[in-house]
Every structure is written in C-alpha cells, then in structure tokens.
Amino acid sequence: IPLERIRNFSIIAHVDHGKSTLADRLLEFTGAIKKTSGQNQVLDKLQVEKERGITVKAQSASLIYIYQGEQYLLNLIDTPGHVDFSNEVSRSLSACQGVILLVDANDGVQAQTVANFYLAFGNDLLIIPVLNKIDLKNADPERVCGQLKTLFDIDPKDVLKISAKQGIGIECVLDAIIERLPPPNAVRGGKFRALVFDSWYDKYRGALSLMYIKDGEVRIGDSVASCHTKKTYEVRGLSVLRPNEESVDKLVAGQIGLVGCNMRSSQESCIGDTLHKTHEEVEPLQGFKPARPMVFAGIYPMDQSQHVHLRGAIDKLVLNDSAVTVNIDSSPALGQGWRLGFLGLLHLEVFSQRLVQEYGADPILTAPSVTYKVILKPTKKIIEDKNDTLFVNNPALFPDHLQIKECHEPMVSGTIITPDSYLGSIISLCMERRGVQKSATNIDNERVMLVYDLPLSEVVLDFHDTLKTISSGYASFDYEDMGYQFSSLVKMNILLNGTAVDELSVIMHSSRVQTMGRKLVLKLRDIIPRQMVQIAIQATVNGKVIARETLKAYRKDVTAKLYGGDVTRRMKLLAQQAAGKKKMRMVANISLPRETFIDVLKK
Ligand code: GDP
Ligand code: MG
C-alpha cells in the first residue's frame, strides 16, 4: 500500500467516553473482527483491564478500509484515559499524524479531555472532534459543541456526531480519518529507521517491540541494531496486529508492526529507542520524555524464599510498563526488596494487581510516598562535600528534625471540571487539601473549570475518589507537575509496643499532625487483628507522643466459643484462621496483615 493511503491515528478521550467501544466498531466495520463475536472491548486484553473496565495499556490494530474504490491502511492506537497513564497516551501520539478527540455528548468536556487535547495540540497533530453517545436520552450535542468552541476554538461544523454503541456514524469517522489526516511523513526509499513505542514479554519469543517504521523497510533475517544499546539482532519475526498477530515477511515505512528479534532480557527493548540496520549510520528518531514517577512504594516478598520469583515478575512487568522505576531497597522488618516509582496511586494498584494475576506473585507493598526535598543544616561534613540537599521518597530515610534546615514538597497544577452545583463542596475539599485557587472559568452556563495549585501528596492518595464522591461522579480531575515549593514537613513515627516501625512512618505537613496522628492509630487498631498480647499503638512526632490506642489481647482459638457447635462451621473457621496467618507478616513481634502498610493511609 503506497504511503498516501496510510493513516496513523489514535483515539483520545476522558475515561468512559467510549474509546474502546469505538475501537471495536472500527474493527468490525473494516472486517477485522466479526460483528457477532459478542466480545466487548476487544483491545482490552489484560485481565485487570477487563475487571476494572479501564484501558491501561495502549493497544494497536491495523485496519484495511476501502474508500472510493481504493484500499487504505489505517493504524489505530487505542489509549488509556486515566491521568496515571497519560505517558501511554503521549507515547502513542508519537506514532500518529492525527487523533480522534472523543467526547461524551451527555457528560461533555471533562478534565482529561482538556489534558488530552493539549497533548495532541502540542504535538502538532490534527484533531477530529467527535461526539459519542448521541443515542442517550440526555445527550446535548449543541451544548458540548459550545464547550469545544469556548475551550478549544473548535468550529461546530467540524464536529462529528456518533453512537459507538449503536454503530451510528462509524463510516463518517473512517472517511474523516482519510479526508482530514495527512499520510505519515515517512520515506520509503530511505535507510531503515523505526521508533520503538511499546514492548512486552512473550514466554517463547522473548521481548517483542512494537514499532513505527519511519523510513525504509525491514525483512525477516535482516540484522538490526539499537541506537540506544548498540547491540545487534537478527530479525526473527515480523507481524502486524489486526488486532490479533498476523505474520508478514516485511514491514515498510508508514506501517506499525511488531518485531521479535530474540532479545533475551527485558532491559534490551527500550521504549523510545530507534532501530536501524546494522552498519548503516542513522540519526536517532526523537524519543519520548521519560515519564517521571511521582509516587514511590516499597515492595517486598511475603517471605525471602520468594525473592527470586518476585524479582523475575517485576523485571518482566517493567518491560511492559516502562514508566515504573525500580531500585533495590531493604527494610529491617521486611528484609530485601525494591523501591518502585509510579505515576500515581492507580498505576501502583494496577501494577501490583498485574503482578498477582499475571505472574502469581504475592508481594507486600508499603505506604506510598512522594519525593520530598530536604535541605540540611550546615555541618562540617556538608561544608566539605557541599551535599546539603536530599531527595527523600522513603519516610524511613527522612532525617532527624534537628538536622533539617528546610523542606520542599512537589506541587501540581490541577484542573477540575464540575457542574456548578458542586462548586461549594469542591472548593472546601481543595482548601482542606491545602490548595490555592488559580482560576475559575465558566465553560457553559452550568459548568465550571477550576485550576488549583495543590501539593502532590494531598492528591495522590484519594483526592480523585473523594472528588468523585462529593460530586456524585460528575466532577473530573487531571493534574500536571509544577516542581517544588517550600513547605513545613515533619515525620510521624508509629510505635507498636514501643518499637518504631519505620515501614509505617509517614511524612506530612505540620498542620496535619494532630488529626493524622489520631486517624493513623485508630486505623491501625482496626486493621491489626487481636493477638496473644496487648498492643500499644502510638504516633509520635519529633519524640513527642501525639496519639495512642490500645488493642486488647485475644484468645488464640477462634473456635473455642463454638464448643459443641457445627463441625463444618468449625472447620471453616480454622481454615480461615490458617489462611489469615499465611498473609501475615511478623513485625516487632506482632503479626500484621500484608495490606496494613498501604491501607493505613486510606480513608
Ligand atoms: P473508554 O473508557 O473510553 O474506553 O470507554 P468504553 O468504550 O469502555 O465505554 C464506556 C461505557 O460507555 C461502556 O459501558 C459502553 O458500553 C458505553 N458506551 C460507549 N459508547 C456508547 C454509545 O455510543 N452510547 C451509549 N449509550 N453508551 C456507550
Ligand atoms: Mg477503554
């Protein structure tokens, strides 16, 4: 297929606006999948995606569409909509010339619509605005067109109106892709250059790389090299995704395809890398800004015998999720483990769920923390090596308050879009989270867009959930990084029977000490099961006790009170007790459920 008849595009939208459904319809319409397959969201392959109904990984598919008697190749890249996964979106965009900006005709423009629009706009991509769900009774396409006009200066005449669910207007979308988007800016005759924009691990074939062929062509048997690692490989397999893998002999400029070249280890396939032919000099393609992790947590095996298994699982999963950073870590209570960096809390949760579901791992995660900047008081040693600034993302490593000169914390600029009836409670929430309002704009006569500066630590844990709750699900939220700001921070220690458990310590703003101290000890009293001994739970800051609770001792045999009772009930309780024990971890001579470290910070 000649270049002029290739289009590479992505669908971007706020979560739940119908990207995956539209992708399904496009696949059906072009005959890539059968209409009757009855399988929803074909591109959402991961178990966690099916369970949570969200798209985590961007997926691709190549479609053949006949337009005015000519065959066109359309490469579709489905993207996730959640803020935590916006690096997946920007990676996908680097292989595209245009995007479909999908907006729910009932919900209207939402926070991620705004973020995604600017991502595409900033990458000089053509934007096809499409309103979805026009079949809904409450759909109001006129109002949403007005929002698009106000916010992005989009002409209502350019907006397509469809129902992905009922298959209305799908053909117009395909035609618009061909008519409005340019073909890829690639060179068929040139030297082979391909941008690796995704990769995953296959048990039999090693690491597979999804690449956009910018120039030239590649065939099975060719020898290719990585600009990043300089290593060379023989091309063993090439395929296109439609959406299932179909083997091909060669791939040419403009195409998106999968290459397998027997990369043994996960680290060899680098996202953002350029592949070229061995012995040919090429200029590397522009890679991606590496995603910067915002939230860090320790990860440990349930017991050290599982250390090797967990390491293997993390290695493989990181290949498929390059936004995660991994560093070796150890903790007095939990032993050898790793400190992982994530883009947000949902990212962390999805990662650990995938470790369990896809790799059978059974890890303990510690409470997440952002990276604080600590400037130390001058000491003789510091004057000598001038190293007075620490970046701390592990509360256990937070210096003693006597050593600290000042602290800084990471800030974000948050965008909230909400119906104005929830304005009051949302503004209180932002104030409670130490937010500073930057602007408030009416985007139509009943919706407002708020911009707030907020500390990242106040946002990562449950801000999004709380916002959803207080707005009955109507408000949406997105944020971007804004660097560091001076702040008054302290470390709160948690003591169990007088022993400080570093893994439970938290860094917080000094204004929070009283309320958080109470909350933490109460929460721990609820989470920790009663044991043979009484447990004193204390929260301290700079050596002063802020809050204290006592957990009473408990009798050992949970079935004792069922004496003479039903045997099956007794067996069941004993089994539960045994299972409960298995998930416990001894810390300071107390067994803690493995979720303790992460649950303690949740509301
Ligand atoms: P994504 O998060 O953007 O990928 O959204 P999904 O494709 O998973 O769709 C979210 C929900 O909206 C699903 O329950 C779909 O069935 C529903 N949906 C998608 N398109 C339409 C539509 O055109 N009309 C209606 N009524 N529902 C739709
Ligand atoms: Mg989806």
Automatic annotation (TrEMBL):
Keywords: GTP-binding, Hydrolase, Membrane, Mitochondrion, Mitochondrion inner membrane, Nucleotide-binding, Protein biosynthesis. InterPro entries: EF-4, EFG_III/V, EFG_V-like, G_TR_CS, LepA_C_sf, LepA_CTD, LepA_IV, P-loop_NTPase. It catalyses: GTP + H2O = GDP + phosphate + H(+). Residues 4-185 form the Tr-type G domain. It comes from the Eukaryota. It is an enzyme of class 3 (hydrolase). PROSITE patterns: G_TR_1 (PS00301), G_TR_2 (PS51722). It is a peripheral membrane protein. PANTHER family: TRANSLATION FACTOR GUF1, MITOCHONDRIAL, TRANSLATION FACTOR GUF1-RELATED. Belongs to the TRAFAC class translation factor GTPase superfamily. Classic translation factor GTPase family. LepA subfamily. Belongs to the GTP-binding elongation factor family. LepA subfamily. This is Translation factor GUF1 homolog, mitochondrial. It comes from Nicrophorus vespilloides. The lineage of its organism: Eukaryota, Metazoa, Ecdysozoa, Arthropoda, Hexapoda.
